[in-house]
Write a structure and sequence with these properties.
Elements (H helix, E strand, L loop, with lengths): L1 E7 L6 E4 L11 E6 L2 E14 L11 E4 L2 H28 L4 E7 L5 E7 L7 H11 L2 E6 L2 H8 L10 H4 L9 H6 L6 H4 L9 H13 L8 E4 L2 E9 L4 E7 L5 E7 L31 H9 L22 H10 L6 H12 L21
Parallel strand pairs: 7-8
Antiparallel strand pairs: 1-2, 1-4, 3-4, 3-5, 6-7, 9-10, 10-11, 11-12
Helix pairs in contact: 1-2
Length: 373
């Protein structure tokens, strides 16, 4: 366990932990801290507290001092200079005809480096641009390519709900979002309705997913039986926001009713509960152009299909099996038949090690015997 304070360098940015080193600032105060990029100016968002060592990125940096009025004035001056640097960089990008979009500019607190954030569809050769900017600002220049999500976070804006986008208001970092979350939240799968300003799936899907999962664990799925104060019914809809379920219950012998209940008033069916009576589907009419045969009507009345109305099915003929001479003779003997003389002669010659009669093409004449020459 280590005692730390949480510091944030950007609005709705990630919170970093620092060692207070005997300085105990309160949330809302500004401090000067040492980071990997050098000396930085940040705002305290969490007071001193103890955290596990696994949550700390070693080595733990220390707080240098609480920001003075001069430090605050210097940070404000840097913001004004960032606006001027933004205009100059845009002019240089247009001059070099680079396919890139400038998003934001950031000065380090000690004015040793200036960082330009941009987006592009692919890799951009900005070596000439860096040389041009270095000759103008006379300090170290860094160009950093970011994604569309980071761009929306820096620029901000309003979401489809009418409120500021989550990533620019309170979300510190991005978390993976999947289309499965939209399905579980019963949202339209239209990309224009579930996508944010960045063109990706909205971050609020992940932010609200935990609440949906907790509610869905308390009730069965849609289409399952559930016990209500009015009896056993079938779930037709689950409203996770209102924490209510709509259930179809049988009212009379021929009628059903859909009623809404709070989740706390229903429960899963047990072994002693009867099964819900489900609404029967109407019989499908016969297909157009295919009238129902009389044999089918007779089947419904009598329960058995008449022999004359049944469709005859003919089995497929099996391909003839090629048998060897020995197999053919054995099969012929089993059937009680007498093998032909040619088959007997062929078997006799094979027993002596000789060869059978030579095959000749169909229509060819036999060779003359020696006595006939």
């Amino acid at each position: 366990m280590a005692t730390v304070i949480g510091v944030r360098f950007k609005k709705a940015g990630k919170v970093y932990y620092f060692d207070p080193d005997g300085i105990w600032p309160r949330p809302g105060d500004y401090v000067i801290v040492e980071t990997a990029r050098g000396v930085e100016f940040g705002e305290v968002v969490t007071g001193s507290r103890s955290v596990n060592d696994a949550q700390i990125v070693a080595p733990l940096k220390k707080v240098i001092r609480v920001a003075s009025p001069e430090d605050i004035q210097r940070a404000e001056n840097n913001e004004k200079r960032e606006a001027e640097a933004f205009k100059i960089c845009q002019e240089r990008i247009a001059k070099h005809k680079l396919d890139m979009k400038l998003v934001s500019v950031e000065y380090t607190f000690d004015n040793n480096k200036i960082i330009f954030y941009f987006t592009a569809n692919g890799r951009v050769d900005f070596r000439d641009l860096v040389k041009d900017l270095a000759s103008v600002f006379k300090i170290r220049i860094e160009l950093r390519q970011i994604g569309v999500r980071d761009e929306a976070k820096m620029l901000g804006g309003l979401g489809s709900c009418g409120r500021p986008i989550c990533c620019g208001a309170f979300l510190g970092d991005f978390q993976p979002v999947s289309i499965k979350m939209a399905k579980e939240q019963n949202l339209s799968l239209n990309p224009t309705k579930i996508s944010g300003q960045c063109g990706r799936l909205m971050c609020c899907l992940k932010y609200e997913q935990d609440n949906y999962e907790q509610v869905l664990k308390r009730v069965p799925r849609v289409g399952k039986d559930i016990v209500t104060p009015d009896g056993v019914g079938v779930i037709t809809e689950i409203n996770c926001i209102k924490e209510t379920v709509k259930v179809r219950i049988r009212v009379d012998d021929d009628s059903f009713d859909v009623r809404e209940y709070p989740i706390d008033d229903v429960r899963r069916p047990g072994p002693d509960d009867a099964a819900a009576i489900r609404e029967q589907r109407p019989d499908k009419p016969p297909r157009r152009g295919r009238p129902q045969p009389e044999s089918a009507a007779a089947t419904e009345e009598n329960g058995d299909a008449p022999e004359e109305g049944r469709k005859k099915r003919y089995p497929h003929q099996k391909a003839p099996k090629n048998l060897s001479t020995d197999q053919f003779l054995e099969k012929l003997k089993e059937d009680g038949g007498t093998p032909p003389a040619a088959a007997k002669e062929h078997k006799r010659r094979r027993g002596r090690g000789g060869k059978g009669p030579e095959e000749r093409p169909e229509g060819a004449a036999e060779a003359p015997k020696p006595d006939e020459l």
